[in-house]
Design a protein that fits this description.
By secondary structure, the chain is of the alpha/beta class. The chain is built from nine helices and eleven strands.
Length: 332
């Protein structure tokens, strides 16, 4: 702690004691509480970033930083569904993610975007009109960790068995959509949408296991020459984020990794003896469809990185089929 800070606190005590007759022991207690929280144990506080107001100024900032053109020219107009319903944890970045996607796609053109929080779009008759789906932080809740169940169990027209059957049917529709050639772009917490479903995990490439507190993450490129990371100019980046760790299908590494973090540098890593590299973004095939997953970003502050905006645009072009690149799984 700076000497000037201590001196100011002492002066504050003398002034308060002279005017309010503040109890000395109470002031000492407050002093040491302030000291411990702010100076002795800085690592004890997660680096939670403040919420950013979603307004025209922020959107204009993102627009100025967004790519001016596509890396992969295409004359097609792709229909994309952006699904932002959550039943579990409410990521404050959800509306910012929608605004970011709207901004970058409108700037380069070639996309017809539909934004919704209605699960009706996962009925097979609705899904067939889209080329790809962007899953936007669709966290589920409870023991089942199944977003479709979370919705249908509250439908008064369905009993428990019917709700479970409908939830299973909608998940099946989603998997079939991808197998037949539809794309999925999954953003951050969307990995937990069907977190206990082995089929969903196999399709997406992994399930959410846990994350330590928010902290600085040094994101690195697995292969700087892969076309989907060309926006980073051969270098990674750093930001404050939740370091996601994965399980289930992730363990087979049936994907082509794009970004990783070094587990030894992550405070709160439960398994320090595990893999040195923990992958936080990847692509893969599922049937005829393309999958893109990105753990970044939990905070809208990360969207102020133009390279990350380019990465998301490139990922979107991949899932709609504009990009031909190496998707071979790395395996164990």
């Amino acid at each position: 702690m700076a000497v000037s800070t201590i001196f100011c606190l002492i002066l504050l005590y003398l002034k308060l004691n002279a005017t309010l007759k503040i109890n000395t022991m109470r002031f000492v207690t407050l002093f040491f509480t302030f000291f411990l929280l702010n100076f002795s144990f800085p690592c004890a506080k997660a680096q939670n970033l403040p919420k950013i107001e979603l307004n025209d100024a922020w959107i204009n900032e993102i627009k100025a930083l967004a790519p001016v053109k596509k890396h992969f020219p295409s004359s097609k107009t792709h229909k994309v569904l952006v699904f932002s319903l959550f039943t579990g944890f409410d990521h404050w970045v959800i509306p910012h993610t929608e605004a970011m996607l709207k901004t970058i796609t409108e700037k380069v053109g070639g996309f017809e975007m539909t934004y919704t929080r209605d699960v009706k779009y996962f009925d097979k008759n609705w899904l067939q009109q889209f080329d790809a789906i962007i899953l936007n932080n669709n966290c589920s809740i409870g023991d089942k960790r199944n977003l479709f169940w979370d919705v249908f169990k509250n439908d008064p027209t369905l009993d428990t068995v019917q709700a479970m059957e409908k939830a299973a049917k909608f998940e099946k529709y989603l998997l079939q959509f991808v197998k037949r050639g539809g794309g999925i772009m999954s953003m951050h917490g969307a990995v937990t949408m069907q977190n206990k479903s082995n089929a969903f995990s196999d399709m997406l490439g992994g399930s959410f296991d846990y994350h330590p507190k928010q902290q600085r993450i040094d994101v690195k490129l697995v292969d700087p020459n892969h076309p989907l990371v060309q926006g980073f100019n051969g270098k990674g980046f750093s930001h404050i984020d939740e370091p996601y760790f994965f399980n289930n299908a992730y363990m087979s590494k049936n994907f082509r990794p794009l970004l990783y973090m070094e587990s030894a540098n992550i405070e709160g890593n439960k398994y320090p003896g595990g893999d040195e590299k923990r992958y936080i973004a990847w692509i893969k095939k599922y049937g005829k469809g393309n999958i893109f997953y990105s753990s970044p970003a939990h905070n809208a502050q990360s969207f102020s990185n133009p390279q990350l905006l380019q990465f998301f645009l490139d990922g979107l072009q991949f899932v709609v089929g504009d990009v031909k690149c190496d998707t071979s799984p790395m395996g164990n």
